[in-house]
Amino acid sequence: MAIKEYPFYLKSTVILFGLILLVYIFVQLIDIMVPLAFAAFLSILLNPLCNRFERLGLRKIYAIVLAMLIMLIGVASVFYFLSTQIIQFGDSLPALQQKFAELFIQVKDWVAQTFGLAVKKQDQMIKSALDSSQGIVSSTLGSLLGTLAIIFLLPVYIFLMLYYKTLILNFLYEVFAEENSKKVSEVLMQTKTAIQSYIVGLLIEMMIVAAMNSAALLALGVKYALLIGCIGAILNLVPYLGGIIAIALPVLMVTVTKDGYSTQLLVILAYIVIQFIDNNILVPRIVSSKVQINSLISIVVVLLGNAMWGLAGMFLSIPFIAVLKIIFDRIEGLKPWGKLLGDSVPTRHMGQIWSRRRKQAVGVK
Q1: Angle subtended at Cα 25 by Cα 20 and Cα 30, rounded to the nearest 5 degrees
Q2: What is the CA radius of gyration of the chain?
Q3: Contacts 24+ apart (CB under 8 A), 358-365
Q4: Rounded to an integer, what distance in angstroms lies between the CA atom of residue 164 and that of residue 309?
Q5: Greatest CA span in the chain, whole angstroms?
Q6: Could you write out the DSSP letters of every residue in 327-348?
Q7: What is the model's pTM?
Q8: 3-state SS assignment for residue 231
Q9: Mind giving me the DSSP string for 282-338?
């Protein structure tokens, strides 16, 4: 029986509507999908540690609990360090507020003299902006509560995913035909390796950037250099926007605590050098080499992730697209899409190669 071939425009329309429906479902189920996605990635990261504990003779439940406990101790240590720095920052907060208020008055006077905008008019504009931002603040608090709920759900999801790991793997093998078991095994193995390497690479990059930020700020005599340097490294994990905020924080601190503008310029110069090292040495060798996604696709998927799931989507977009590339590379009809996502750049496009072949064929005749 002959298989009916549908025209290209009809197939592309069906695929497009399918993608739109899939994205719509992901957006609507954000409260369910985001914690599950984070839990899946963290489960893959903790899996080797669980396996090692099991090989040492621990029962599966105890191995999972011990691995999760080690992860929680690491996270708690980071929060403890940051909290001690924040407490020191809070001791100087009244003096910083007074200095900031004086600086704010100077800025308003400068705007009034330069642009002719009266101080009273500026106060009215600021008051109007604050009134209109109340809705934003309430929505931010709501999202913060949702984030806290996700944090409490994460350990439960991680424990269950690690406990039912064999059941999930058996499902993935059995849902495909037996002749595809080798490809399924390769996809699962490479997916696990890519995600583990990507997360570990991000952590290594964050620690190196935190050390460089803190060292530069300490050398320039910036107050709370360790706190601002570590916060800048954490913000640096957020593509594009995080780097801008990371530079703005020390510049604002120097502006409030010191006179003149030479230190601010030195801070900006130091952060530009650090960003150059990060973008051209650390990220390509530590992070991007693990996922092998080209820069154009990385930017696009990060923006799409932000449009779908906000900040969480920006974090999850790169490992998600890396998993898709692994799958595409092993399915014959999707291999061109895998090449499009990859970072290997051909020297000539296929049109040139085909044209040369046609010329050689004509010459032979």
Answers
A1: 130
A2: 26
A3: none
A4: 27
A5: 88
A6: HHTTSGGGHHHHHHHSSPPPSS
A7: 0.70
A8: helix
A9: IIIIIIIHHH---HHHHHHHHHHHHHHHHHHHHHHHHHHHHHHHHHHTTSGGGHHHH
CA-to-CA separations, 219 to 40, 180, 235, in angstroms, rounded: 41, 58, 21
Q: Is 162 exposed, middle or buried (0-12, 13-18, 19+ CB in 10 A)?
A: buried
d(CA 142, CA 136): 10
Which H or E element spans position 67? helix 60-91
Spell out where 61-130 has E strands: none
In 3D, which of 8, 311, 74 has the Cα closest to residue 207? 74
What pLDDT digit, counting tens, does each position of 116-136 carry? 777 777 677 776 665 554 544
pLDDT computed for residue 349 by the predictor: 60
The pLDDT of residue 150 is 66
Contacts of 238 (CB under 8 A, 6+ apart): 311, 314, 315
**Burial (0-12, 13-18, 19+ Cβ within 10 Å), 305:** buried
Residue 230 pLDDT > 60: yes
What's the pLDDT band for 64 if we cut at 50, 70, 90? Answer: very high
202 touches 287 (CB < 8 A) = yes
* pLDDT > 90 in the chain, percent: 14
